[in-house]
Structures are given as structure tokens and as C-alpha cells.
Amino acid sequence: MILDAALEPQRSLLHQILLASQRRLKAFAVQHNWDHHLNDPFTRSAHFYAQKKAFDLALLEISGLDPKIELPETYCAALEQGVLMSVSPDLYRELYPEGDEASAFEKLLTHEMAHRLHIRILAGNEDAMGPVWFYEGFALHAAGQLQKAAPSLTQDEIWAVAGAEDRQDYRRYVTVFQYFLGKATIHQLVEMAGKVEFLSWLRQKNTQTVL
Q: Measured over all CA atoms, what is the biggest interatomic distance in the chain, rounded to whole angstroms?
């Protein structure tokens, strides 16, 4: 675990949070019989940054991207090349106050690891993760994030989110993902999400459930 110098006083706390995030993901994986995908660790190291700019530059570098790219202010964690990277808990709260909840930082780290679990379930095929609302919804669900903050949405709003290509408020993804969990199992959703007929399949499941 690597910390910026300013975060050294938080080393013990961050270590505890990191372990808690791993336990949180394992509980989710065990619940759905995906725990065998956790046999090999997702990370070889974790690096916590005291400044957003330093996090951005490190993430762009490890991802092989142009360092001049401006990442969104709310982009606060990632897991790339076996390195779990994140801003500090205090900075995360400052940059994304909408995400402030019990165990918020623990859930953030779990979210990033959940993306890697999702990819392993799909045998490494990232293209099969489905639309953005689904793979982010999967990670949010796995981490237990933003559940109390999720808004009520109408049917029209749910389908608008499901059909949108641009990123939207993650709290809406929680609502939409939970809605479709009432129409199919999580295993069925994961299997279908990367297919071109995913939305039409969801509409069919929706009709079947209503009937």
C-alpha cells in the first residue's frame, strides 16, 4: 500500500478500509456463487493520493492515455493493471458529496474491484459487460452503494436511462439496476447484457412479469 506523504497518518485506517472493501466484495461473490473468481487477487498494490491532479496523472499514465486529458471531478478511483488507485477519503467526500453515506469510501473501493469481478465472470470479455448503466449498476449493487439515495423513477424514466448512451447520475443506475433485478436474476442479466438484443429481451421480461 502506497500513500502520499500527507496521508501517512491515515495508513492504519486506509488499510482497515481496504480489507473491509475486499470482505464486502467477497460476501457479494459468495452470495451469487462467484467466489471462485476471487481465487486470484485483483490487485498487487494500492495507491492513495492526497490530490486529485496527482491521481488523474497517475491513472492516465498507467492507462497509456494522453496526460492532457481532463478527467471528471467525480472520477475518484480506478483499478488498472493490478493497481487500485484512489483519492483520499476526505477528498472523495469533497469531490462527490452526493456519495457521502455510511462506509462510503469502503464501498468506492469495492465498486472498482467489482468491475474486475464482472470481467472475470465474463471470462475476460470486457465488451460483454453491457451498456454503461448496467456495468456501473452491477458495481454499485455489488458494493451496496447509494441505495438510500436512489430516486424513484417512472417506467418512462427507467427505460430512458436503459436506452441512454451517455453517462448519467449513478443514483439513477441504482434504481434501474434494482428494477431489472425484479425481472430477471443477476446471472441472467450478466449473461444477456452484452448481447445486441439486451434491451428487447428486457422489454420481454418486463411484459412477462407484468402478466
A: 60
Taking the CA atoms of residue 24, residue 99, residue 172 and residue 199 in that order, the dihedral angle to the nearest 10 degrees is -40
Cα-Cα-Cα-Cα torsion 177, 180, 182, 184, nearest 10 degrees, comes to -120
Return the C-alpha torsion angle 60, 66, 68, 72, nearest 10.
-50
Count of domains for the chain: 2
Distance CA 173, CA 137 (A): 5
Do 9 and 52 belong together in one domain? yes
pTM over 0.90: yes
Spatial contact of 12 and 3, defined as CB atoms under 8 Å apart: no
H or E element that contains 129: none
Q: Give per-residue pLDDT as tens, 43-63.
A: 999 999 999 999 999 999 999
With residue 93 as reference, give the H or E element that holds it.
helix 89-95
Structural domain for 39, as ranges: 1-100
Lookup: cell for 163: 436506452
6 and 49 in a single domain? The answer is: yes
CA dist 65 → 79, 113, 146 (Å): 15, 21, 30
101-114: pLDDT as tens digits: 999 999 999 999 99
